[in-house]
């Protein structure tokens, strides 16, 4: 079961990153070009929100089924924090991904409250862009390639 969840989590991450990139650029271009906010822009933002939340749920399931999680009991807090690999998988990656998903959620919620196109695009560009950078900062790149 662990391998299946890890496989899904790893490949769903490509979709999340792709959608965050598209949504971020959509927000930047829409704001810079002073475009009118349309149903397509709403769908891009919503789909990005949905795929990122699905990734969070898959990631939480994976977190509690991974062998790394058992290291909390075996090594303790000091042991996990002293080992860079354990710290990445048990602390840094989960925490930063949760922060990124919170940024996506805030950006989506904030953009819905705006009445005109400029501020909508601006909120999406800022929050989705920050979420994209946060995600890129703590992806375990060694296991991706």
From TrEMBL:
The alphabetized UniProt keywords are: Membrane, Transmembrane, Transmembrane helix
Record field: transmembrane: 12-32, 44-64, 91-109, 121-141
- Protein's name according to its UniProt entry: 50S ribosomal protein L27
User: What species was this sequence derived from?
Assistant: Christiangramia crocea
